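Running co-folding for FE2/S2 (inorganic) cluster.
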Amino acid sequence: MAKLPVQLRLNGADRATFVDPAEPLLTTLRRGLGDFAPKYGCGQGTCGVCTVLVDGEPQLACLTLAVACDGRHVETASGLADGPDMHPLQTAFMAHFAAQCGFCTPGMLTAARALLAHNPHPTREEVVEAISGNICRCTGYEPIILAILAAAAAPGARRA
Amino acid sequence: MLELRKDLFADERDDTLNVVGKSVQRQDMPGHVTARTRFFDDHAFDGLLHLKVVRSPHPHARIRSIDVSAAARAPGVKRVLRAADVPVNKNTLLSLINFGKDDEPALAVDKVCYVGEPVVAVIAESEAAALAARNLVRIEYEPLTPVFDVEEALKPGAPVVNPTYPNNYFEYHERFDHQKLRFGDVEAAFARADIVIEHRYQMSPIEHAPTETNGSIAAPEHNDRYVVHTCAQGLFFSLGTTAKIVNLESNRLHFIGGTVGGGFGGKVDSLTEPLAVLGAMLTGRPVRFVLDREEEMLYGSPRGAERIYIKDGLMRDGRIVARYVRSYFDAGAYTRLSSYAAIKCTAHIPGPYWIPNVASDIHVAYTNRCPSTAMRGFGITAVDFALEVQMDRLAEAAGLDPMEFRILNAYRDGDVKPHRRVAKNTALIECVQVAAEKANWPLSDQARRQSSLVGGGTGARAEIPATVLDQRGQIGRPESRGAPATGTLPAGAMRIPLTKEPVMEGTRDGRAAPVQVPRYAPAPAPGPAGPPPAAAASRPAAPPASSAPPFYPPAPSPAPVAPPPVAPPAAPPTQHGAMRFSSVFGTRRR
Amino acid sequence: MLDVRTCGSLAEAAGLLSADRQAHLIGGGTLVMRAVNEGRLTEGTLVRVTDPAFRQMNLGGPRIELGAGVTMAMVLARGELAFLHPAARSIGGPAVRTMASLGGNLFAGPPYGDFTVALLALDAQVVLQAGYGGGRAVALEDFLAARARGGQGLVAAIQFARPQSPGDFRFRKISRVRPKGIAVMTLAAHLPRAGGRIAQARIAYGAMAPTPIRARGVERALEGKPLDAVSLQAAAQAALEGCRPATDAIASEWYRREVLPVHLARLLAGDGR
Ligand SMILES: Cc1cc2nc3c(=O)[nH]c(=O)nc-3n(C[C@H](O)[C@H](O)[C@H](O)COP(=O)(O)OP(=O)(O)OC[C@H]3O[C@@H](n4cnc5c(N)ncnc54)[C@H](O)[C@@H]3O)c2cc1C
Ligand code: FES
Ligand code: FES
C-alpha cells in the first residue's frame, strides 16, 4: 500500500516524512523522524509514556493516526529544554528524584507541561489528575507530584 | 523518612561513609529528564525489520501441523521462522553454569505446554505487516489434558508437562525431586512440643509489569558480528544464552544494554534476543522483537506461584523447637529460574530465627502455566510472608506479644543455622526494637535489653545436632515421598560424606562429561529404631507458661556428642559451578 | 493492509461505511488504534471525518445537540455542560479525554461506555446517518439494543433535553483504582420532580449488562413517589431487574450484583462522590 506524505512541525521545526496509512504517530515520531522521547509502553492508551502535545493538547501518540497530524504542531519532551537550559519541570524532576528507570519520564514531563500551560498554579489534586493517565512502575508517584508542584512554584514554569 | 541509626553496632563500622545517608544526584538523571537516555528501542536503523511471534492458544496441545505458506507470501514479509530454523532449539537459562537440563525450545517443536508459548516467528518490513501476516499462520493442534496445580502435577499419572522432566519436577543433583534441608530431628521435637501448629499458605503469580516491555534489536555489524541493543537485566547472561541458541561464538555478539525501563527480575529470561539475532542472521537486516503489552502481561514470565505448608513445634514458654516447611514452586511449563528459587528458599529457612530442629522439602513442579522467573527476592518473598504470618499465629498460641516473640526466637551472632553456617551480623532484635519504638508498641524491659550480640552461639545454639536422614522423594519414585528415616548423621557433621566412586553420568550427547555434582555416600546405617538424640531427650521440661518469655532459653549442649564428625577428608569434589551454586550446605563463610 | 480514507463530509463517510463492510469509522481512535496496534484490525479501511459538523456543539436551546466527534475534553471545556462534567472526567486521563469521542463511547463495550450511561439517563437520541441520505434519530436505548448486530452506519450526533435543574441529574462511577480506573459499575439518574414527586425518572447502569441499560424496575418504583425511605427501599428491591453483569478482571458478576443496590441507594440519596 502506498505511503502517505505527512508534514508537521515537531518541537518548532518543520518536518516531513512518509507514513503507512494507519500508522500511529508514535511510530512516525520514533522510526520516521528519529525523536525517541515518546516511548512505547502499551499501544493501548493505558500507560502514558507516549504522551505528546498536539497543538498544545496532550494526546497519546500510540493511539493517534499520523495522517491526522498533518499540518499540526507536535511537541515532545525532546523540545522541553531550551538549548542547554533546562525547563523548570526538568530541574524539579532532578531535584526531587522523580525518575528511577526514566522510562515514564518523558510522558510525565509532557503531561505536566500540558497542565502548567493551562493551569500555572495547580493544586495537588489537579496534579494527580493531570498525571492520572501516566503510569510509573518504579519511582512512586509522590516524588513526581512534589516535583510538579515545585516546578509550578518556580519562575518560568509556564514557558511553553 | 530515612534515619540512620548509627548508635546500633557502632563499633562494627568505621563511620567514614561519604555517600550513605547523603543525597547524591543520580548520574543518569540528566539523561532521563531531557529524554536523551537511550533505551534499547531508541536506536535508529535503516531497513529495520519487525518480528512478531505466533503463540499457542492452548495450555497443552500436540502440534499436528503448521502452515506458514500464506504468511510467507504476505506483503512485506521477509522470513518466517519455525522450530527447525533455530540452531540449538533447547535451552535452560542456568545451563550457562551447568545447572539443570536443557528443557525449553525457542520455538515449540511438536507440542505446546502453556498458553502463549511461541511457535512461529514472522519477520516483516513493518510491525503492521508482521501483525497482518501473523494472522495468516495456520497451526492445527490436538489439545492434551493440562495440569495447573502443583500438587496435582506431582501425583503419579499426572499429564507430563515438560518432556525433559517426565515426572513434572526439577531434579536436584540427579537424586531427589526436591531441595532437602535436614537439621536435628523435627519429628522427635514435634512429639515433645507443647503445641504443634501447621498451616497452608499460597501466593499467586505476580507480573513485573515493567513500563518498558521486553525487547531487543539485533543488527549485522562489521567484522561478521551482530550488535544487540537489549533491555536484558543480565547483559552477559543474555549474551551467553543467545550465543548458545543461535550457535555463534560469543565474541561475535556485541550486546549493548544496561539501560532498563524497569525490570524487577522480569528481564533476565532472554525472551527476545535469540530470535532477534537469528532473524538478523537469516535476513542480513536489523531485526526488532518487542513484546506488546498484552504479551508482556500474559507471557512475560512472572514471579511464580507457591504453595507452602509450615509445621511448627512450640513450647509454652514461646520457644520454637522444630520447624518443617514443605513447599511447591510453580515453575510453569519450563524451568527458567525456578530451580534456583527453590535453592534460595531452602537457604532462607527457617527465617531469621534460631530453631534447633529444622527440615524442609522444597519442590519445583511443572504445570501448564506460563514459565516463572526471577522477581525481587524470588524464592524468599512468599515463604517469608508465610513464615511471618505463622510467627504471629505461634505468638498467639503461646500467649505472647508478637514482637517479643520474635525477639525471643531471633538469631543472634554465633548461632548455628540449619545450613551449618554461623549466623553473623544478625540484627533482627534491634530491628524489632526500633520498629516497636517507632510504632509506640510497648516492649517489656527485658525485651528492650536484648541484643543480637549477646547470647548467640552458646550451648546448643553453637552445635550441629545429630540429624535424621531419609531418602524421601527419590527421583522417579513418588512412593518414596513418605519413606521412613534411614539413618542419623552424627552431631557436628557438616555434610554427608562424599562417595569416592567415579561417576560418569550426566553426559551430554553421549560423551563423558565432567562430574556435574558430587555424589554422596550411602547414608549411615539406620540407627536402631532411630531413638531421638540424647540431647533432645534430656532437654528439661518447659518452664510453666508465663507472659514474660525467658530470653535466654536454657540451651543445654547436646550431651555426649560423638567426637566431631571426621567427615572423610575426601579430596574436595570438583567444585563445579552448579554445585557451589546450589549448595546451601557448603562450608563457605562470608 | 489497512487503508485510511479522510472524508470532508459526513455524507461521504456514511456512504463509505454503508458501501464497504470492511470500513470502520475512526473517531478519537482510542479503541480502534489499540486494535490496530495489537494486530486485531489488519484489513479494511479506517474512515476519518473532518467535517466540522462532526465536532459541533449546539448548546443554545433547551435541546442540546452534540456532534458524535465531540471529545470528552470539549465537553469539559463548556460550562453549559457542567452536569455532564463528572461523566466526562471519569474517562481516562487528560490525554485520553482529548481524543475519546462521544460517538466512540456509544460503541465501547463493557466496562467502558461511561458517558453513554449518562446519555441514557438523559433519554438521549442518536442521529444515524446511513449512506448518503439524511439523518434519522433513534432512541439511544434502541440504538444500544441493536448495537451487537452492528452495521448501523455512522452516528452523526447525539441529542437530549437539558435537565430542568442540573441537581436532578446524578452520575456515579465506581472503580477500584485511584485516582481513576475502569468501572466496577456506572450509575446515572435523572430525577425530575413535580411537586416533590418524581416524574419520569430515568436510571441507567453501565457494566451491568453487555451494553448500558435502563433500570426500568427502579424507574417504575420511583414514579410519582417522593424520594423517601419507602421509595428508596422499593428502588433497591427492583435494582437488579434486567441486569446481566459479566465477570471480568475488575469484579465478578456476583460482586456486581451484591453492591449495585448499595451504590444505587447512595446515588438516589444524593451522596456526592
Ligand atoms: C487508557 C484508557 C482509559 C479509558 N477509560 C475509559 C473509561 O473510563 N470509560 C469509558 O467509557 N471509556 C474509557 N476508555 C475507552 C474509550 O477511550 C472511550 O470509550 C471513548 O469514548 C471511545 O471513543 P473514540 O472516539 O476513541 O472511539 P474510537 O476508537 O474511534 O471508536 C470506537 C468504536 O466506535 C466506532 N465509532 C466511533 N465513532 C463512531 C461514529 N461516530 N459512528 C459510528 N461508529 C463510530 C468505531 O468504528 C469503533 O468501532 C478508555 C480508553 C483508554 C485508552
Ligand atoms: S504507549 Fe501510548 S499510552 Fe502506552
Ligand atoms: S521511573 Fe521507571 S516507570 Fe517511572
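Result summary
Chain A has two domains: 4-77, 88-153.
Residues 105-118 of chain A form the longest helix (14 residues).
Job closed.
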